[in-house]
Amino acid sequence: MPALLYKEILIGLSISDHDVSQILNSFHSVVLTANVQFDNKFDGFEEAYKDGTVLFVAFKSASQIIREYTIYHRGRIIDGTQQNDSTTEQFNYNTVQPRSEKNDRKHIHSLYENIPKYDTSAFGTQIAIREIEEVIKDQIPVPYTMAIRFRLSIPLDDILVFSGFTDYLNSLFGDLKIKFKINPIAFLFAQVNSIISMAQYYTMNKTDIMASGPDKLKNIDLLFRNWSLGYQYTKQFTQMGCTLDLITKISIEQITDSGLKNLMCSINPVIFSVKNQVVTEVNKNMSGYKATDDCLKRFREFYANKQLDVPSQRVESSSFPTSATTAGIKTSQNIPLSHATDLCLLFLKMLEQQLVMKIHAIIIYKLLYVEEIFLICQ
């Protein structure tokens, strides 16, 4: 049954056919459809540029889609796993993840510089202006609405509570379940660099473009020759609900009767938001293996006399009691740094942005000797 906005989703993690589940190599696959709203129709584009001008709607990291979650062990809630601010928690954890982990896995983490490359690590959907035009051409009221389908993969070890696990012994420790909610404000959007996206479109559709006649080819060439680096549109991800400057029109103006043309580009503020969303499919992809009776017996004997210690990571968040002023931040914080590996000061640039609005101290307890690193993130 589809799960609507803010509805809880409960799914089992352990598989009875496995004696040991490999948390490190397992993930959730989620399919959802979101109705995205925007207040501009993008109806001024030259015909030759509609397929090559692209918007990107995505998540910064797939795990940030989880708003809150609860872990169940043998049908009972595990103490300390009722996390109601999971998006911030995953943002913190993602801060200290190695860059290689973000780039080497498919549809997990979106970096703005990777979007024009059609990199498989990016998680999101690219929407051409022509697609927007076809969907909203008959819509009269503002804002305009467009349904976008996403398929995402959430690695279990990207969720902080599972980050210390590699293997989980089902038959010894019992079955696990997770209940979570989707966060609609975790969506991001951006405009792909028009020159790069147009070059990609031309490269992949060169035969069709040349077969369509010389006019379309000349217009694309005009875009490449006359594009200005001074076009001041927003070249970064922006959270849904915020305003950013987008290219809303690219047209051609004929200057002289002899056929001399000029490229015209309009940039306007546009607001994107999520009206609602429906989760249509949730799959568990769990790796695991069977174990012999002798192996399980040795495990039982081992843990019968020794307490199970699960290496884990902890995130602490605290806010300044006062706001920043022109004279600086007037406050004091006592933060123990005996095990701190990263201390990040994060300052919001827009009032609407809710993902980066706190001070995050990430404390890793599985390291006995660590180097204290201080990062100031602006």
What do these coordinates show?
The protein contains 8 helices and 17 strands. It has 378 residues and is of the alpha+beta class. It folds into 2 domains: 284 residues, no CATH class; 57 residues, no CATH class. Strand 12 and strand 13 form a beta hairpin. It starts with 8 loop residues before the first strand and ends with a strand.
Number of domains: 2
Model regions low in confidence, pLDDT < 50 over at least 5 residues: 351-378
Mean pLDDT: 74
Shape: elongated
Q: What portion of residues belong to β-strands?
A: 35-45%
Structural class by secondary-structure content: alpha+beta
Protein traits:
378 residues; 8 helices; alpha+beta; disordered C terminus; single chain; five-stranded antiparallel beta sheet
Lay out the secondary structure.
Blueprint: E1 9-12, E2 20-38, E3 54-59, E4 66-73, E5 76-77, H1 86-95, H2 99-103, E6 124-128, H3 129-136, E7 144-155, E8 167-169, H4 170-173, E9 176-182, E10 187-191, H5 194-204, H6 206-211, H7 214-226, E11 238-239, E12 243-254, E13 261-289, H8 293-304, E14 313-318, E15 340-346, E16 359-364, E17 373-377
Quick take:
By secondary structure, the chain is an alpha+beta fold. 18% of the residues lie in helices and 37% in strands.
